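Rather than argue in generalities, we reproduce a single protein record, letters for residues, whole numbers for local backbone shapes, just as it appears below:
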Amino acid sequence: MEAERKHLDIVVIGGGPAGLAAAIAARKAGVENLLLIERDSELGGILPQCVHTGFGLKRFGQEMTGPEYVERFIREFEALKIPAALNTMVTELTRDRLMIAIGEPVGLIEIQAKAVILAMGCRERTRGAIGIPGARPAGVFTAGAAQRMLNIEGLMPGRKVVIVGSGDIGLIMARRLTLEGAKVLAVVEMMPYPGGLTRNLVQCLQDFNIPLHLRTVVTEIHGRRRVEGVTIAQLGDNGKPFPGTERKVACDTVLISAGLIPENELSQQAGVELDLATRGPVIDQDMETLVPGIFACGDVAYVHNMVDWVSADGETAGAAAAQLVLGKRPERCAPIPVRPGEGVQCVVPQRFTYLASEHLVLSLRPKMIARDVKVNFKDEAGTVIHSLRRKVVRPAEIFDVKLPVRVVKGCRELSLEVV
């Protein structure tokens, strides 16, 4: 079967908050010949199943649920008459921005694009990814799968629940299950600090008296046909379960909330270089990858704490892709790499390619919980060229810092440290 070939200016892959914002920004910038491709049957990404509040505080100045937040973008997307191919998946993508897509409305097509915006989001780590031993009974879910079961399908995952990991989705599901009548017996986290936002720790665990066990792991899942319980143990200084601390917790459901991984199979196909720290593509301040004309935004670039920032990333990528297609890009400089230094897990963007504004904005994730810290910017020689202070930093929360462009001029490399 020979595929039909189409030529488009911009193709956005993914119809979640990042993809919607990117498509809207590109259309507003003057690009008419664009297409959004979404593999699901509806737009919105993960947000339709996020019925809790906490969205829109930064962007709209009001607290909204996930469906309320994304509905605003869907309405604007439809008002701009941007074409979307739903129930369609991109199966191949090359460095030259040639892709193959297959789906119910389009059949099998080849698309040659001048610019591609990757907005595929991220996926959850599974039980296999974190290596929990034991049998394989029914009743083990990722937190996101359980969230969809409960909020979209109206199905109760279980009644006596243990949550492995303290990511935000797991914390939110702890509250949601409690409100639906289940008993959340414990949230088990292997790190010495929680993995979710402070507001979720307070509103989802503390307000409902749900115990959080830090430096603790599940060493085994029990049960044949259905989960019957788990064994948990404290971790010693060597990172292994400490003998004698094991105890069994009777439960019928285990939720895994052990982190998110950017969905980068297409990125790798296209030869996009990935950052080992973020697990997403190496990008510049326009969200462009090292492959010219391919952009990445939202959680496919790096896992965000708030969807408001995901939308902002999408707008940046959409506007930049439009500038590329329309020939309106700012003049480029020699790329300035940005690297994480002491006390920093990761930093985004990983390079700057032009210095047209007054400030450069970077997002970084610290390695530790600390108060009254200093964020230092260093040049290639290790000289501190700028510093600022933060009252509190936490590994679970990414924060932005601004660097005046005037101190960067002449630098061949930048690094950030938190001390």
